[in-house]
Amino acid sequence: MMMTHMKSPLSLTLLAALCLTLTGCGEPRLGSRPVPPLFQDMARYGLTVDLPTAASVFTGYRHNFGLSAVEPDPRLVEVAREMAATLAGRDDIKASLTQTAITERLNRRGIQVVQAGENVSAGYHTLAEAFSGWRGSKPHDQVLKLPGATHFGIAAIYAPRSKYSVFWVLVMARKG
């Protein structure tokens, strides 16, 4: 006895809906959606940290603690970029980076600051990861919460041969 399976319109509709649902479960193809700057993978040449995004993240965090807003400063960004490049060139994040040291370095360059702090780190691929790591480390968090800070500079440098891959530097300052 031979049986034929009749496909009802309802079963075809359910099958089509299932297929459409499953096609949305995979990872998005490269280029299918823009990546928000907070989650941009910095492990590629030629990328720079999105400064408006960083300003929004840092200011929002600081406001949670009753602290002032901060805005990017091109000269502080350059200082951060130079330090990140130096660390990447050494493939090492060990540095003597006290508040006094960064304040003196900035003042020597003609950038007058009352107070400054500096975070260095490596291994984070995105601004979100770096920010999360800094919040979770008391000394780094103190830099994020630098009282009276008005400006910042941030940079990430890609070093493909390094075990860290990406080196980050944040300079937070209260200009005077």
CATH homologous superfamily?
A: CAP
The helix/strand class is alpha+beta
Cα gyration radius (Å):
24 Å
Percent helix, as a range, is 40-55%
Quickly name the level 1 CATH class. Alpha Beta
Count of helix runs: 6
Percent strand: 15-25%
Q: Architecture, CATH level 2?
A: 3-Layer(aba) Sandwich
Bulk shape: globular
Q: In terms of per-residue confidence, which ranges show pLDDT below 50 for 5 or more consecutive residues?
A: 1-29
Count of individual beta strands: 4
Question: How do the SSEs run, as a string of H and E?
Answer: HHEHHEHHEE
What number is the mean pLDDT? 84
| Subunit arrangement of the protein | single chain
Question: What name is given to the CATH topology?
Answer: Pathogenesis-related Protein p14a
In which order are the strands of the major sheet placed? 1-3-4-2
How many domains?
1
User: Distance between termini?
Assistant: 94 Å
Organism: Candidatus Raskinella chloraquaticus
Keywords: Signal
Pfam family, one: CAP
Signal peptide: 1-16
Description:
This protein has 176 residues and is of the alpha+beta class. It has one domain (38-175): CAP (Pathogenesis-related Protein p14a, 3-Layer(aba) Sandwich), CATH 3.40.33. It is built from six helices and four strands, in the order H-H-E-H-H-E-H-H-E-E. The chain has a four-stranded mixed sheet with strand order 1-3-4-2, with helices on both faces. Residues 1-29 have low confidence and may be disordered.
